[in-house]
Specification:
This protein has about 425 residues and is an alpha/beta fold. Helix content is about 40%, strand content about 10%. It is globular, with a radius of gyration of 22 Å. Mean pLDDT is about 95; it is low at about 420-428.
Length: about 425
C-alpha cells in the first residue's frame, strides 16, 4: 500500500523536513563526545557529572508553534510528536542529551496486561496537564482476586509492522536510516499494585495481612517472569534504545556474548525497578516485600537502574544485594551525604534535583545552585560517579525559559573542576 493513501503530500513533507533537521543534528561531533562521557560514567570512570532533563509539562512549552502537530494519521502523528519534542529540547535545553543517527520506528504489537487496570477517580488543577491526582479503588481484597493475575498475552502484528517499515522507507530513505524498535521494560511492581489496590490499603495490609501481601508478590513476580519470557520469544526486547528511566545507558558490557539482534535476551538489556510507596516503610519491610522478590527479575537482565522518588539512603545495603544494579536513584528526599558514602565508587548516584524549584511563583536560583553544588561536593568527596536527572516536572508556570536557565546553570556546575579524592577500596 502506498503511503499516499494515509498521508497527504504536505504531511509527508513535514515528516521529511523534521527527519532532515534531526539527521543534521545527530551527525554533529558533539553526539559522539556526549556518548563517550555517558559511557565513562556508566562504566564508573566518570570524566565529569552528566545531566539530563525529561518528563516535561509539554502543554506549557508550545509557544511559537514549534510543537504544533500537522500529521493526522495516529501512528505517524506520534512519530512527528517525538521528533518535534527532541528538536525542541535540543534547541532550548539540550543538557547532555544524545541524538542517535538512526530513527526508531516501533514494531506493532498488543498486550493484554497483567489482569488489572486502574479503577480510579482523578482530579486536575490544569485541564491541559496530563499530570493529575489519583484516588485508586482496591481490586485485590481476597485470594480469589490474586487468581486474576496473568502473564500478559502479547501479539506481534507482522502486517502492521511491515507496513510501518515500508512507509518509513518511503519517508526517510536518503535522509537517514531507521530501525524497528522494541520494548524497554521496567518492573515497578509496587507502583502498579498501588494503582490496583490503593496506597492506603497496601500500607494497612502490609501490617495487618502480611501473608496476603506475600501471596500477591509471589504471583506478581511469577507472571512478570513469564512476561519476560514472552518478550524474548517474540524478539520484542530492545537492546539498542539509549535511555533507561530518563538516563542514558551506554555501556560496552552489553549486549552480552551470544547476542542475536533478531531476538535480544533480557541479559542483553537494561531494566529498571522501584518501590516508591516504600518511602514510608522500614528497610526490613522493604527487604521482605520488595527486594526478596525483584531479585529474581533483575537476575535476568544485563543492567539495572533502581529507585525513583523513594529515599534509599537508609537502605543502600539492600540495593547492594540486588543483581546487576549499576545506577541508584537519589531522590529529593534522600540524604545525599549518606547515599554518597554508602554508594562509594561502586554505582552511579542518579541525583534527582527537585522539580519543585521550578514550580514556585518565582525561582530561587541561589537555592537551585546551592543544591546542585552541594550534591557535586558530596559526591566528589567520596569519589562517587554522579548524574543529575531533572524529571517529573509537572509545571514551570508556563515559563519555559526556566528550563533553559536551569540547563545553563547545570552545565556550568558539571563543568567546574573539583579535586577528586584519593582512590579507596570498593564497598562491594
Amino acid at each position: 500500500m502506498s503511503i499516499a493513501t494515509r498521508l497527504t503530500q504536505s504531511e509527508q513533507a513535514v515528516l521529511r523536513d523534521l527527519a532532515t533537521q534531526y539527521a543534521a543534528l545527530a551527525a554533529l561531533p558533539v553526539q559522539a563526545e556526549k556518548r563517550r562521557l555517558w559511557l565513562a560514567l556508566n562504566e564508573l570512570q566518570m570524566v565529569r557529572p552528566m545531566f539530563a532533563i525529561d518528563q516535561l509539562p509539554w502543554h506549557e512549552l508550545s509557544a511559537g508553534g514549534e510543537l504544533d502537530l500537522k500529521v493526522q494519521e495516529p501512528f505517524w502523528r506520534g512519530i512527528e510528536r517525538d521528533l518535534r519534542r527532541m528538536l525542541y529540547k535540543w534547541r532550548h535545553f539540550p543538557a547532555d542529551m544524545v541524538l542517535e543517527p538512526v530513527l526508531a520506528v516501533p514494531k506493532a504489537f498488543s498486550s493484554t496486561g497483567y489482569g488489572f487496570k486502574a479503577d480510579e477517580n482523578t482530579a486536575a488543577l490544569d485541564q491541559n496537564n496530563d499530570v493529575v491526582g489519583h484516588a485508586y479503588h482496591n481490586q485485590i481484597r481476597t485470594e480469589a482476586d490474586i487468581a486474576r493475575f496473568q502473564v500478559p498475552e502479547i501479539r506481534l502484528d507482522p502486517d502492521e509492522t511491515a507496513r510501518r517499515e515500508a512507509e518509513a522507507h518511503q519517508l526517510f530513505d536518503g535522509i537517514m536510516p531507521f530501525r524497528l524498535s522494541g520494548v524497554v521494560t521496567g518492573f515497578a511492581l509496587w507502583d502498579r499494585l498501588a494503582e490496583w489496590m490503593s496506597p492506603e490499603d497496601i500500607l494497612y495490609d502490609l501490617v495487618d495481612r502480611p501473608e496476603f501481601i506475600h501471596a500477591i508478590m509471589e504471583k506478581f513476580t511469577d507472571v512478570a517472569l513469564g512476561y519476560i519470557d514472552r518478550l524474548e520469544e517474540l524478539g520484542l526486547l530492545d537492546a539498542t534504545d539509549n535511555l533507561i528511566h530518563c538516563s542514558y545507558n551506554y555501556t560496552r558490557e552489553l549486549p552480552q556474548p551470544g547476542f542475536n539482534p533478531e531476538k535480544p535476551r533480557a541479559a542483553d538489556c537494561w531494566t529498571m525497578g522501584m518501590a516508591q510507596i516504600f518511602s514510608t516503610v522500614s528497610p526490613a519491610m522493604h527487604e521482605a516485600f520488595e527486594t526478596d522478590y525483584v531479585r529474581r527479575i533483575f537476575a535476568r537482565f544485563g543492567k539495572v537502574y533502581y529507585g525513583c522518588c523513594e529515599p534509599l539512603h537508609d537502605r543502600i545495603e539492600l540495593v547492594r544485594t540486588l543483581p546487576n544494579v549499576r545506577k541508584i536513584s537519589c531522590s529529593p528526599w534522600c540524604d545525599v551525604a549518606v547515599a554518597a558514602r554508602k554508594i562509594g565508587r561502586d554505582y552511579v548516584l542518579s541525583r534527582k534535583p527537585s522539580p519543585a524549584f521550578l514550580a514556585t511563583e518565582t525561582v530561587d536560583w541561589a537555592a537551585v545552585s546551592a543544591d546542585l553544588r552541594e550534591t557535586r561536593r558530596l559526591c566528589a568527596a567520596t569519589g562517587t560517579p554522579l548524574e543529575y536527572i531533572l524529571k517529573d516536572i509537572s509545571t514551570v508556570r508556563y515559563q519555559p525559559q526556566r528550563l533553559t536557565d536551569w540547563n545553563s546553570l547545570a552545565a556550568e556546575i558539571v563543568a567546574e573542576k573539583l579535586t577528586a579524592p584519593a582512590a579507596t577500596a570498593s564497598h562491594a
